[in-house]
Amino acid sequence: MCGICGYCGKNILHNKEIIDQMTATLIHRGPDERGIYNNKDVALGARRLSIIDLARGSQPVANENKTIWVAYNGEIYNFHHIREELLARGHIFTSGSDTEVIVHSYEEWGEDFVKKFRGMFAFALWDSTKEALFLARDRIGIKPLYYTLLPDFTIVFGSEIKAILKYPGISKNIEPKALDCFLTLEYIICPLSIFKNIHKLEPGHLLKYHNGEISIKSYWDLIEATQVNQEIHGMSNSAIQEKLAALLQESVKYRLISDVPLGAFLSGGIDSSSVVAMMHLEGIHPVRTFSIGFSEQSYNELAYARKIARLFSTEHHEEIIEPDAVDLVNSLIYYLDEPLGDYSIFPTYLVSKMARKHVTVVLSGDGGDELFAGYEHYKAQKLSKLYNAFPGVIRKHFIESIIDGISPSPKKKGLVNLCKRFIDGVKKSPFLHHYRWTVFLNELEKQQLYTEEFKAELGEFSFFDLIEPHLEKASHFDAINAELYMDIKTYLADDILVKVDRMSMATSLEARVPLLDHFFVEWAMSLNGTLKLHNFTSKWILKKTMEHYLPKDIIYRRKEGFSIPIKNWLKTDLRDLMEATLSKENVNGDAYFNYACIDKLKKEHLSGHFDHSHKLWALIVFYLWKKQFLG
User: Fold this and answer.
1) Rounded Cα gap, residues 226 and 141, in angstroms
2) Is the Cβ–Cβ distance between 562 and 294 less than 8 Å?
């Protein structure tokens, strides 16, 4: 696991301090070693977190005649099999690392080489004979990669934006579309970044830079991959369960490859518990498990995590988060690089920090909700069809007016809060699909919040423009899988995986995600959606499968989610932070937002009659990010 950076072009600045400074920003991603390669047209930098072949795995890595170089972030879990194939074809290796496999795979298979890899990765490969630079990102988007093309046709890239910003002349202008997207969804959809002209390389894509020009192509398509798995449609439910368990165990087995200690995040939910169960089956005794809890009981899942820990006799570690944990916010925003409104950055960081005291690698259960319909908005989308069967006058004047008049509950998932979220969603356009329940700032609210200057910059842009390219492809799936596909392409890649990568790497911890093995994803997305959302039971086929391994009260308990009680904390421990950050002076210091609207949001939230925690926290994050990155 590493952080990578570099630049390439005919006009690059030949100053070793630049690549040194870029690489230094990534020290948290790779504290064990620094490596740099320089020539007249390219500079590659790598920070290494030693996981495999600790003695000989230094980067960047070259082929025998030093014509091909690679800087690499991630893990290729099938590298042993590829290595054996390459050895049989006459290739010579000087190490046992997976990084060297990338170099020889390119020599053997050319630009199709990336299709051979099973894992999570982002890498830069320089071919001096062709004077071409290749940037690649794994299929699902587990590992990040940013790039920009400068006016002099130099390409600059990095695992994180902060590395790119160290290259002289990089503009720091905010991208209005990205800011609007962030305030709408709490994350920024790929390929946008918060900065104009700095882009995310999309998952499953290969970028080629040659003669000052960039070309990008997809090397993996989930739709095409699922169409191959036609045998699923004739399988019985019991056969599907057997296959699902076998694939999950295989995926976990691949992710146990390590020359350093490893463990697992354990929330006590079905996804992380399933991963721990499979680690136990693979002979990891004891599995080291790590959990985070809260003093507020409606947010605390430690009892479930403890039950799984006892069941599999794990070496279990846990901590309680208190509100003062949010003192971390400035340092966490530094590691994020971009505004991200996901509250669960705090528990993710703290559980990573705790785990890093004991291990260097952890397995997590991320991805299960997007593959097996675990989120409430999938149920809400289905329920909305039944709700719309009621006459409009009953919906508007009875149900909706009553729900709107009730104050939100302080409990995390009280019935009132669920009803309020549902009603708020069904009022929005059905063309937003399930995003109706994950939009935190609607068009009317934007008109009130945004200044005229910001509206003019945005023009006719809508965040819908960013999800529309995925909608046509989603139509190849059944209704439920279509929604899962949209979340895999947006929410999973641009929120969940960003959060896990940045917060784990902030502590120099490698997080592996067995449920996002691309073979497992392809197979799971080939299953009919009704096996996932069965009536109103989410993750039905996964739950039926795991009945053979886990207690039913773990499998069928209500999903809580990995979050913090932010709406309550904003009224108490975080009130001073909110008032200082969203002060009149701060807000009026730029041309983005109307202070009167923000002031109204604060007062309504503090009154307890409204829950504006998502909107307020997103604004707080933006202003803290802006101060840190723009001054």
Assistant:
1) 18
2) no
**Pair of tokens at residue 51:** 């996981």
The pTM score is 0.93
Q: Where are the domains of the chain?
A: 2-220, 224-373+480-555
Q: What percent of the chain has pLDDT over 90?
A: 72
Look up tokens 């390119």; give the residue. Answer: 106
Question: What separation in angstroms does the CA of 177 have from each of 354, 434, 455, 462, 590?
Answer: 37, 21, 10, 8, 17
Q: Residues 2, 5, 181, 190: which is the catalytic one?
A: 2
Q: pLDDT tens-digit profile of 574-588?
A: 899 999 999 999 999
b/e per residue 463-476 (b: at least 16 CB within 10 A): beebbeebeeebee
Any binding-site annotation on 501? no
Sheet of strand 61-62: strand arrangement: 61-62, 68-76, 119-127, 132-137, 205-210, 213-218
Is 30 annotated as contributing to ligand binding?
no
Please give the torsion angle defined by the CA atoms of residues 317, 353, 261 and 124, in that order, rounded to the nearest 10 degrees: 150
Say which CATH superfamily domain 2-220 falls into.
Answer: Aminohydrolase, N-terminal nucleophile (Ntn) domain (3.60.20.10)
Single-letter amino acid code for the residue at 87: L
Spell out where 233-287 has E strands.
262-265
270 annotated to bind ligand: no
Amino acid at 495: D
Assign a CATH topology to domain 224-373+480-555: Rossmann fold (3.40.50)
State the DSSP string of 432-496: GGGGGGT-SS-HHHHHHHB-HHHHHHHTT--THHHHHHHHHHHTTS-HHHHHHHHHIIIIIIIII
Does 566 count as an annotated binding residue?
A: no
Active-site residue, 2 included: yes
Cβ proximity of 493 and 141 under 8 Å:
yes
Nearest to 367 by CA among 546, 512, 555, 551: 512
pLDDT at 256: 95
**Structure tokens that stand for 287 in this block:** 């599995």
